[in-house]
């Protein structure tokens, strides 16, 4: 019966991927980082991994892509593990901005004064400065270790993407100087930005994203080894941040129409977490799973056009919303 169910689910997903792949015309590949412009706008791939090793994989799966903003979730998690939740939350808030991820509009208005949340650039750059270590490589070591534990191999930085972003990102430098002026940064601005650009350039696949999603769904515990990889209280804050701030200034719509914690990146990736729900008895495999999506054509907010359509359709068909 499980086998039959799986085959049935696989066929559904294959059909939906084929359908939504043709619906990217309203989107555009990110071009503000020159290297990202080379992506195929019509690519669409998805991996769903449940507990017990059950997997559904469909579409363009042999693309690897830079993790971009999805790394903000992981650096926040690492910072909380290494420095303590209280310490981090005194320095970055947990409120959505309703503005673009790299907006400078909101920088002066939060009270108490600190960046609004770790998933917009001002908060993420601050978090990069709070990571332990004096160099970007030292700072990123625990992040690589965390990823390795989850995805089973040590991911690599795409040097071309890194250089491309480093040499063009004037906005992030402007944000960095503002943070420096306000005294938010704990490490040298150059090292902080290098850390941020490098973490955004880590190469991953939809399979990797689905594995990360599954660990978050499972309250930070690795589903195979039972090892606690992320403390439950850290995983919980990460998921609430994803739900309220993870899809940029479209987070409210995503929460309403899809209803699961997710984080997108400008290379077209989406990390999504489907929490366990007793109601899904007829599809037990989907009861607590991770989803990774890749579709580089983006909407105005910077989210994958086809990726959002696909997730919305899947979440509604299979009743995945947490609400
Ligand atoms: N590297 C990107 C930037 O800071 C990450 C942004 C994103 O994925 N939204 O501009």
UniProtKB/TrEMBL annotation:
Keywords: Acetylation, Hydrolase. Transmembrane segments: none annotated. GO terms for biological process: glutamate biosynthetic process; L-glutamine catabolic process. InterPro entries: Beta-lactam/transpept-like (IPR012338), Glutaminase (IPR015868). It catalyses: L-glutamine + H2O = L-glutamate + NH4(+). One of its GO terms (molecular function) is glutaminase activity. The keyword NAD does not apply. Pfam families: Glutaminase. Substrate binds at residues 69, 121, 165, 172, 196, 248, 266. Gene3D superfamilies: 1.10.1500.10, DD-peptidase/beta-lactamase superfamily. It is an enzyme of class 3 (hydrolase). Its EC number is 3.5.1.2. Homotetramer. Belongs to the glutaminase family. This is Glutaminase. The gene is glsA.
